[in-house]
């Protein structure tokens, strides 16, 4: 997952700041085992 964040920092950074709630849901759905 880390390489995905580093590959598109200019897209992910503002996206995470604008929609933190949606980002949390994305993590819960994409990585349910880690939570």
- Main β-sheet: number of strands, strand sense, barrel status? none
So what's the overall shape? elongated
The ordered H/E elements are HHH
Computed CA radius of gyration, to the nearest angstrom: 10 Å
Structural class: mainly alpha
* Strand elements, count: 0
Percentage of β-strand residues: under 5%
Helix content: over 70%
Termini separation = 14 Å
Stretches where pLDDT falls below 50 for ≥5 residues? none
DSSP summary: helix tally: 3
Mean pLDDT over all positions:
67
Task: Explain what the structure shows.
The chain contains three helices and no strands. By secondary structure, it is an all-alpha fold. The mean pLDDT is about 65. The protein is about 75% helix and about 0% strand. The longest helix is centred in the C-terminal third of the chain and has 11 residues, at about 20-30.
Index terms:
35 residues; mainly alpha; 3 helices; 77% helix; 0% strand
Give a summary of the structure in a few sentences.
This protein is an all-alpha fold and 35 residues long. The protein is built from three helices and no strands.
